């Protein structure tokens, strides 16, 4: 290889590398959605209320996995979200909660589901429609009180996947001090 072609080859290599660096974060950051309030686990990580969460802080909207999973990370690589030893803060709420999603990609939607334990407490059927950039659901917690973990699932209409978000709640306000 001549000196000139070595330089040309090096220039091409240098030119491509920055393109990859620029494109891949933008590609992941543009996709999907998560619950912003009450703050989901990934929102608590992204907003710095929970530390040492790993890469999820950069893309709280990217907890994507196959439909039908029943854990907080949706079998994605963000397994920290299912780590019950992380000391997840619980938002104080009443018996009915408005869950607010931020969608960075408005995928055609089959259903939105909400679970506590193994029980589905709410489902909203969008019939394949494209949602807005934000979505809000009012969900009754069915008289449950105390600390509860809600698993919310956004089922995409035209792929095999869903997006997952767990929201930790303290239901029924502050505990009364013993008299
Ligand atoms: Cu997406």
UniProtKB/TrEMBL annotation:
Domain Chitin-binding type-4 intervals: 32-169
Protein name: Lytic polysaccharide monooxygenase
Pfam families: LPMO_10
Domain of life per record: Bacteria
Signal sequence, renumbered to the chain: none
Gene Ontology molecular-function annotations: monooxygenase activity
InterPro entries: Cellulose/chitin-bd_N, GlcNAc_Chitin_IntDeg, Ig_E-set
Upper lineage: Bacteria, Bacillati, Actinomycetota, Actinomycetes, Pseudonocardiales
Keyword Thylakoid annotated: no
The keyword Signal appears for this protein: yes
Keywords: Monooxygenase, Oxidoreductase, Signal
